[in-house]
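HUMAN: Would you supply a protein with fold tokens?

ASSISTANT:
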Amino acid sequence: MLDFNFSVNHLVSILAIASGILYAFQIGTLKKNKSIETKYFTTFISVLSFIVLLFLIIDFRLNIKILNLSIVFFILSSVLLLPPLMWLYVKKIISQEDKVKDKVHFYPSIIVSLIVLVLLIAFFLTKNQFFMSILIKVAFLSLVVVFILQNIYYIYLSIKGYLRHREKIEETYSYSEDVDLSWVKVLIIGYVTFIASIIVVNYFDGEISNIFFNLIILVYIIYIGHNAMKQDSISVLDGKNISDSDYQKDKNISEAQAKIFDKIKADLLDVMVEEKPYLDHNLNIFTLAKRLNTNSKYLSQVINQEFNKSFVHFINEYRIEDAKQILLAKNNYTIEAQSQMVGFKSKSSFNIAFKRHTGLTPSLYIQGNS
């Protein structure tokens, strides 16, 4: 007869599992854009929930040999899936391409799963403890060596990809709304916290540490699930095949190219004053380059090298200068309305940009100049 005690830790585990299944179902079936990143995310959150389920079963301490050995197999295969799934989701959502095929990232999990499966079958057929001793070594190497190396590698790739993408966003768009991927940073940080929690639980084995572990997973699943429901992939290519080299600040330009850059700079300054393209909420570097009869690569280089600014900061500087005049003028417009008048999509982005350029919030600026 099975005998186990139900605890607070078990309740939190069940809530985490249920939340993961719910978000996987919602995102996988209800979200309109069933893209490849959606599939990777639903798989990631499903595997995460499955791992919590396996830990929950282990915590029940059921004395069923075949079940316990099966859990070893599923834990090893599932845990080794998490790092590549996290990276592949991040890679797809930031539209990063590389030469490595996606399936290659799953090879460690597949290889370990096959080895463990062979060892388990051999043990059940022969009852030879030799296969069990090999299984223990494989499990140790998989969880301690392979898993740690995987996480170091994929967390590095994810952070590098996120930072590079954020840089490209600043060089492409004049706004942050609808292109903000800051929650992906929390996805990565949360994942690192999850890995650290596994270590803590194993080092401080006890009820409190287990509850702490499952609470982190519960909060993490709810947060990333909620944000993934709203997030689509964000490409900075806009139909053009622009590589990372397009954003390099190359100082060694030719004399002919220098003349071209001088003309682009002069035309840019004229257009900014006469036509005020920065008043367009959706302005990006491609539309502005087309307006100047040049390409986005050259325009980006001119703004980077001649003004020592990113595209978004260059555009926002003009918006802020207009905003200063409007803020000090006597009118009945709210600050939010005035921010939209100069090209900002929201009050929050306006406040951040205004403080960055003036060192003051709009309200303090008005008080200091009234």
Observations:
- Residues 8-230 form a domain with the Rhopdopsin 7-helix transmembrane proteins fold (CATH 1.20.1070).
- The chain has two domains: 8-230, 246-369.
- The mean pLDDT is 85.
- The two ends are 81 Å apart (CA to CA).
